[in-house]
Amino acid sequence: MPSVLLAVCGLRPQIFTETLYALHQTGDFPRRAIILTTQQGAALSREILLGAGGRIAAFLRDYRLPSDANPLVERDILVPYCRGHPVEDITTKEESEAFQELAMRQAWEWTLDTSGRVNFSLAGGRKTMSASLALAAQCYGRQQDRLFHVLAAPHCEADVQFFYPPPGTEGSAHVILAPVPFPRLRSRLPASFLRQPCRPQDLLDHFSLSDAPDVHVYIRERHLTINARGCTLPPALFALFLWFVRHKKEFPCNGWCASCCGRACFTESSSLLADASGIARLYTMVRASDAAASSTGILDLNQENFMAYKAKLNRRLHRDLGALAAYAAILSLGRRPGVRYGLSAIQSSIHIH
């Protein structure tokens, strides 16, 4: 099975050739390799590993592998960007988050293809870098993918000139792969997380919530919060959202609305449009000034612009709340002509202020 090596690397590029050696010894030499590192690490990797005089070329010669078997090219030495600049070193929370997003994006990309295997190597870089790649492997890893560390004898680690055991010295050098068992969460991810790489915070929000979180709605501020993440809505969108909130609070709700189609708290659009004047009153109450008023749009709601407002509202919630938007979005249940609409949050979790 062809494999790809996705490896973290810091200021010791030796770990990369040690990894290539260990994979070669197990018969799993990668067809392509990607290094995730910092700007400093990238400079060292290019200088020491690449080119005809680099350590990868030397390894290929020593182990009689063809020169075109080199799995690493310069464009695959990747550095995260923070505030528009490549990360020199990971010393801040923002730089760590940038590296996490890079690891997530690469793990997502290389596991899209159902064939082949991804080998995730944690042997290199700062501990935060290894932790980020381990999280990405847990999120997107498939059954055939592997996560491992590379172990070398202490005297090899202490030798700055050691890059891999020369042929004939393998026994004394003792460089091996140490597999790391890991849970594979891919099958439990929402479809949206598989269509594009997810942010670590969205992943944690998705898995850390065993019960529905509270949804706090602040009318004067046109604002809602879920688990300390907030979203402020324009008057028209907030008026529509508040209508669904109040409609929901009028009915008992004991579980996830998405699994109980037919509940009274979900309503057909005809019922909502019949109360268009009620939505208009909510809009008049929450709009910031007279200048915000309009004789069209939310004040003249119809089926077409209701669907447009609903889509805009859900997009805005997802933009600001990430995965938590699932607890405040307007859901659609059933099929035409009997589609019903309602708030995804359960009644007991909604708090109006």
From TrEMBL:
Domain CRISPR system ring nuclease SSO2081-like residues, every copy: 13-193
Highest taxon listed in the record's lineage: Bacteria
InterPro entries xref list: CRISPR-assoc_prot_NE0113, SSO2081-like_dom
Listed name of the protein: CRISPR-associated protein, Csx6 family
Source organism per UniProt: Desulfovibrio legallii
